[in-house]
Fold this sequence. Notes:
Radius of gyration: 22 Å
GO molecular function: citrate synthase activity
Active site: 271, 327
Order of helices and strands: HEEEHHHHHHHHHHHHHHHHH
Keywords: Transferase, Tricarboxylic acid cycle
Pfam family, one: Citrate_synt
Bound molecules: s-citryldethia Coenzyme A
Amino acid sequence: TTGDTTLDVGFVNTASCQSAITYIDGDAGILRYRGYPIDQLAEKSSFLETSYLLIYGELPSAQQLAEFDQRLRRHTLLVEDMKNFFDGFPRDAHPMSVLSSAVSALGTFYQDSHDPHDPEAVEISTIRLMAKLPTIASYAFRKSQGQSLLYPDNDFNLVENFLWMTFGQPTEQYDLDPDLAKALDLLFILHADHEQNCSTSTVRLVGSSEANLFSSISAGIHALSGPLHGGANSAVLEMLGKIQSSGGDVAEFVRKVKNKEDGVKLMGFGHRVYKNYDPRAAIVKKTAHELLAKAGQNPLLDLAMELEQTALEDDYFVERKLYPNVDFYTGLIYESMGFPSNMFTVLFAIGRLPGWIAQYREMITDPATKIGRPRQVYVGESERRYVSAEQR
Ligand code: SDX
């Protein structure tokens, strides 16, 4: 028995690992980070505080949070040589490819702190990655736009600095929109961890070989880029755009999904674990309304809501327990913030980073939480004798 749930032996045998970080009850639609319900953290916490909670296991005191904030601010700058790295990519390189490669390259500047069994090395790598990933993400975006790269301004906190480096101009004072920073901070909290999803399991599996934190996170970023995982937020916007350009006929689109025509899926719907409404999606939907309503009528938001309502009332989706997941509304919000769709999954990665780091640290310090070497059920040929080419 663990927490609120008694895991039957069958489930335990199929569970990839045990962990004390994030708890999900997929049937009840419950999500907790270190025991704190996601709706309480969304309402009362910050991304910085939630990151501290996930990584160190407890909510910080005001002093601990201030120290954590200051440590991160002092590590936001990239080694100057890293800038050349961004010149090496084609301008249309996907920012997720740049992000994963740059994180791997970043690690090469800190080879003296790669030892996963050296707590100080893991701690400084934690701080460097948390502080520098937003800088790398903004550089990937700026390069793709042909814009100059901006140094971090450490009068800003992590989220504000990311917005400055992404949307600021070197020639003028940055007019930070506090509502925008608050909404992005909330979205990062909602993405911060999610137990053993595809990318987190990747971080754990790569890290279980004692690969360093930078390499393990780089692998996790690659896993997240897939359209069935972190790439779904961009795919939702593409789906809504196609429905809109074909006349906005939601019923016709839903008919195609149900008939599995051309492999069409209702992106942003369904989940490996949630067989109920994803608790994060409910919070994102509310934020979408508040933010987008402010920016004026958004036809794609109206379309998304009509699509959601249609699906929630349709037996095909109800029988398969297909509900909106965290990706269904996030793309609409990111687009309203001024991000192009190829940056949406990069934002997911910034949010997920503290979870990846927390899970890597847990796995390294507590072997009982290690993902063992996955086994298989062999369904191939039984033993056969070799025959020469002439006899085949
Ligand atoms: C994330 O794991 C995590 O925690 C991930 C994540 C995180 O925080 O890390 O929550 C983030 O990745 C959210 C998921 C984002 N992906 C999408 O929105 C892509 C669209 N969703 C599907 O690809 C799908 O729902 C999955 C992969 C997310 C989950 O698939 P399931 O639950 O394992 O379902 P399945 O693939 O076994 O399909 C079961 C049935 C099938 O129909 P039948 O063969 O029974 O007729 O449901 C259908 C599927 O065709 N189905 C869908 C569907 N998802 C499943 N049909 C239409 N649209 C969909 N989205």
